[in-house]
Design brief:
This protein has 376 residues and is mostly beta strands. The chain folds into two domains: 221 residues, Copper type II, ascorbate-dependent monooxygenase, N-terminal domain (Jelly Rolls, Sandwich), CATH 2.60.120.310; 71 residues, no CATH class. The chain has five helices and 24 strands. The strands form six sheets. Strands 1, 2, 5, 9, 10, 13, 14, 16 and 19 form a nine-stranded mixed β-sheet that branches. The chain has a five-stranded antiparallel β-sheet with strand order 7-4-11-6-8. Strands 15-20-17-18 form a four-stranded antiparallel β-sheet, with no helix packed on it. Helix 3 packs antiparallel against helix 5.
């Protein structure tokens, strides 16, 4: 297995990269600059979002349901392209494995349905949700190494996660698209997938700069093809080192620009053994006279039950403080310091919910009542 790492504390365009001998025969064409000049592929297919109107000054992220063409075909992907329009911050495309929890939920929605979100992995079940790619530039081309590819399926459900900030004085229509370039199944010897490391707990005081470090290790051997950073405009230097094993402490890469230097491709896929991993360093600058907060999408949006961490495991219940902190993170606030006592598991079953979802505004009211009841 070959993996593409996505570190959030997508990858840079690589025009001319090839994935097999056949791709070397392609006619060289100008590199697209974004959605407007993204051509239809001659060796695959293109999928476009329906999009959304974004008002002047609006900063919003949508997750829109889409579907791959075909019925039960198996597609072997040698490379793909992602494209966004003007005023975009990022585009992430995820697919749902047939029969998974993610697939089941996405099929309760229509193609073109969209919801305001903080990422597909936070909006939908993680089971079966696989990332195709991520881009922070209007255009990205990702070519897999020779013998490596991804597998997709006809009729497979997928998600466009597009984030736009409209700094113009006019309403814009946000759209996104991706191209899939196919190769012969016989040329694919290794199946690629992606994984992500996230840190949503950065806390940078006003008018200051802070650096955050973290280490992540793997339970199994794997081959790694590339690394990608994903930070917003206050992100500065992003560095990566090997962690563990014979290469422990060995420097890999530094990105000085969150938008124009987002990715690093290894010269050859790199073996990472079980127990080994990476150390990440992310520097953020806060030039404002106020502490930053994560972007707030509102307490009123639904949250999948997996996201509430209700700690029903082993029948131990959970604490009101833990639920408060989780709800704050869901809404984009820094964790509150509200304290409470442990809620018995049986009481958690009384949480108001709609089918398959908890509603944070109702959960907040429930927590307040529980805090008062437990403190009596």
């Amino acid at each position: 297995m070959v993996l593409l790492a996505l570190a959030g504390c997508s990858s840079s365009p690589s025009p001319g990269a090839t994935h097999d001998d056949q791709s070397k025969q392609k006619t060289v064409t100008p590199t697209p600059t974004g959605l407007d000049d993204l051509p239809l592929p001659t060796d695959g297919f293109q999928v476009r979002s329906l999009g959304a109107d974004i008002n002047p000054g609006e900063d919003v992220e949508y997750c829109e349901v889409t579907e791959l063409p075909g019925t039960d075909e198996t597609y072997y992907v040698g490379e793909f392209e992602l494209a966004n329009g003007p005023h975009s911050h990022h585009l992430v495309v995820a697919t749902a494995q047939p029969g998974s929890d993610a697939d089941t939920e996405l099929r309760t929605m229509n193609v073109g349905d969209k919801v305001v979100c903080n990422g597909a992995n936070l909006q939908f079940p993680e089971d079966g949700l696989t990332f195709l790619g991520s881009a922070q530039t209007p255009y990205l081309l990702r070519s897999f190494p020779k013998g490596v590819g991804m597998v997709l399926h006809g009729g497979q459900r997928a998600v466009f996660d597009y984030h736009y900030l409209n700094v113009s004085e006019d309403v814009i229509h946000a759209e996104s698209a991706f191209n899939v370039h196919l190769v012969d199944a016989a040329t694919v010897k290794h199946i690629a997938t992606a994984f992500s490391f996230f840190n949503f707990t950065v806390d940078v005081p006003a008018l200051s700069t802070q650096t955050f470090t973290a280490e992540c290790h793997f339970d199994n051997d794997l081959m790694l093809a590339s690394l990608v950073r994903h930070t917003h405009q206050q992100g500065r230097d992003f560095s990566v080192w090997n962690s563990g094993g014979a290469k422990d402490g060995q420097f890999i890469w530094t990105s000085h620009d969150w938008k124009n230097e987002p990715g690093y491709d290894f010269p050859e896929p790199s073996l990472v053994k079980s127990g080994e991993g990476f150390k990440f360093s992310c520097t953020f600058e806060n030039p404002n006279n106020a502490p930053p907060t994560l972007r707030h999408q509102g307490h009123g949006r639904d949250v999948h039950p997996r996201r509430l961490v209700l700690a029903r495991r082993r029948g131990k219940g959970t604490s009101t403080a833990g639920l408060w902190r989780h709800l704050d993170r869901q809404a984009g606030h820094r964790p509150s310091r509200e304290r409470g006592r442990r809620i018995p598991p049986g009481h958690l079953a009384r949480l108001p919910r709609v089918p398959g979802r908890y509603q944070p505004d109702r959960v907040v009211r429930f927590l307040r009542s529980e805090v008062q009841r437990l403190r009596v």
